[in-house]
Structures are given as structure tokens and as C-alpha cells.
Amino acid sequence: MKVENEMMVTVHYKGTLTENGDEFDSSHGREPLTFTVGKGQMIPGFEEELMGAVKGDKRTFNLEPERAYGQPDPTAIQKVPRSQFPPEIEVGMVLAAEMENGVQLPFKVSEIGDDEVTVDFNHMLAGKNLTFEVEVIELKESTSGCSGDGCC
Fold first, then answer.
1. 56 and 17 in one domain?
2. Pairing mode, if any, of strands 116-120 and 77-81?
3. How many angstroms separate the Cα of 134 from the Cα of each of 2, 56, 89, 116?
4. What is the CATH number of the domain that holds 34?
5. How far is CA 116 from the centre of its chain?
6. Is the Cβ–Cβ distance between 3 and 50 less than 8 Å?
7. 151 pLDDT above the threshold of 60
8. pTM of the entire predicted model
9. Which tens digit of pLDDT belongs to each residue from 114-133?
10. Contact predicate 144/73, CB 8 Å
């Protein structure tokens, strides 16, 4: 059995920044990650690089921003009145804004002025080249209605 569209795939992985090798995420030391291919649960390049893999395969691959989290969007950088923040905020802090539907949207504080705070809603890995080391642990045919979140 090989990785293909609609298949449930379980992997262990480590993600690093290609430029300096800094690790940004890893499944090692916790449960492996399970997802259904083609359901938009993973960044596109991650799924593309695993196509055709079999159980036990280990793959290392690099993803440019267009196949990962995209390039930073300048419209996702906004100025917000300083009065909407607590006094202890600092540049580089990651906070979250609660949207009307209750979803938490993370942002990074990029500049603090007397009257305004500049915040960046881009994904923290936007514009970055990423390297992944992935081991395929298990492959299953997806059952109808299964989301790949481990519930089926």
C-alpha cells in the first residue's frame, strides 16, 4: 500500500528551518501525527512529498514558501490602538485575537509605539524555507466520513 489521495497516513516528523536548522516542530516524544491526504489538513508540499511512500519509508525534503505557508501578506500587518493592549506587551510576543465566531487568531507584536501597536497576522512560518524529516508509521484506507483526527 502506498500513500495516495484519501488515505489515512500516520507519521513521525521533525520540521526545521532550512536556513539555520532550528527546529520548529516535532512529533517525537509524543503521539505520531495522523492525517487524511487531500483534506487540507497539511501544507500542500508535505503531502506531495509523501505521495507514493510506503510504511517504513523515511524521507527528507525541503519546501519553499509557496509549497508551505506562502509568502507574507502585507495586508495581514495592521496597526491597532495601544489602548487595546496590556502595559506589559513586548515586541516579539505572540498573542491571540478572538474573532466574532470564537476562533482564536494568533498574531505577533512587531512594533510598539506611543499610540499604536503594529501586529502581524501572517503565519509564523510564512516566507520560510522548511526542511522535514518524515517516517511513515502506518497507512490505512480512509473510511467514509473519517477526518483523520484519530477518531475512526
1. yes
2. antiparallel
3. 15, 10, 37, 42
4. 3.10.50.40
5. 29
6. yes
7. no
8. 0.81
9. 999 999 999 999 999 999 99
10. no
